[in-house]
Amino acid sequence: MADVEKRNGDVTGVARGDAAVTNGGATGGTATGRAATDGTVTGGAGTGGAVTGGTLAGGVGTGGTVTGGVGAGGAVGGTAGAGANLPVLRSYNAALVLDLLRAAGDAGISRLELAERTGLTPQAVSKITARLRTEGMATEAGRRASTGGKPRTVLRLVPSAASAVGLHLDRDELTAVLVDLSGALVAVRTVPLDLGAGAAQVVETAAIQVDAVRAEALRAARARAGGRLDMPVGAGRVGVTPGTGTAVAPNPGTAVAPGAAASIRAGISAQAGVRPGIRADLVADGCDGSRDVLGVGVAMPGPLDHRAGVPGRVTGFPEWEGFPLREALAARLQLPVVLDKDTNAAALGLALRGAGDSFAYLHLGTGLGAGLVLGGALHRGARTGAGEFGHQVIQLDGPRCDCGNRGCIEALCLAALARGDLPEAARVLGAGAANLVGLLDIDRVLLGGRTIAAHEACFVRGVGAVVAERSRGTVIPVTAAGGGPHPVAEGAAQLVLAPVFGHRRESELG
What we know:
CATH class of the largest domain: Alpha Beta
CATH superfamily of the largest domain: ATPase, nucleotide binding domain
CATH topology of the largest domain: Nucleotidyltransferase, domain 5
């Protein structure tokens, strides 16, 4: 071990070799970068070792594990390295504090309340909040009267401190959204898409729309700021170009230190194999679009391997099987990218909005699928195959489905829609929903997707009637999912944001 300085049990210098770093981050492995305080490895790579109680925030974790912290490319308590590129903070404790700040909204929360609700010491909370304020992610929100003491200063999250982009790649349509740290919609674009046009063309179309939604938000923010170039993307909610989406009302923002988002993205940019910098097309608009966008979440029809970022054999589009979509899009955008199934993304977004901890989200658009939240966990199955709801067979000699089987719910439901028989489509969907209720004992069924949105009352009534008939006296609510017109795209953005607030995609939603 060389060039190591120990301060209060932390390592603040550079550790090389088989270093055992106590309370600094790497235990039993090799730390080749800079190990900072607060249980964080912020500059290097942990190879084959374990990080206990800390966060891999600045480098690449290869073959190691993260225990009690947040790992770039993996879940809390999961494996770092080959997984999805996720944004991380300097410590899990900071993520907990940020989550409480977000939940408190504009009213804010005091440091004492933060300490009580996290179990951290007041000193630890003061240290974390001071850093968050310095980085522009938190700010004072006034003072609040207290019982028997002086008024307490309350803090709130700065939603404009950073943002995330969500992409929904549907079979015939692409939706791109940009949301701020609170999850509020900043900008949205929707364009036609041919998923069968070839992977290279789809990647290019997706990249163009990501750049467009970022540049649009930045130009609007700059305009409100009087032409300043240092306004963050999330500084306000903006309207979209006519014909591409829905206008969003303005929301004044707060200037943020430019280093905040950069510190979050530093390590995952290296994992994506991209260089830091400004994209040429955004530079042409005078917009520094890279510095506060944490990453891009991509949601598309399954099956797929979300850890590897690779689609499987998508029904009707076999050419996507095995294509390294996450890697290709990350290289094109020079941003971290996370890939997941459309229904999983929507279910995650709904769960984080308070939809409950035991529900099925049924998505009916150009296809039919389900996102499952069971016991507060996003259920993926052993091979990320859970939720292929549309391909359960309910009619043995039914019409042939594009997947090759006969009598799939998707084939029957889409055939009824093609005939204009909405009640029959709802009845078929209800039969599948009732099967899920009986099999999984879920609390509620949420319906979403373009087809549901166009005929909401018919499907809620029809599906609800079948579920009620087969639920043996148990009341199982069947409702429209709500949460806006873009649940999949906004859920895809939450794939990026959730780990920032300490939520585990693999197991824990709240």
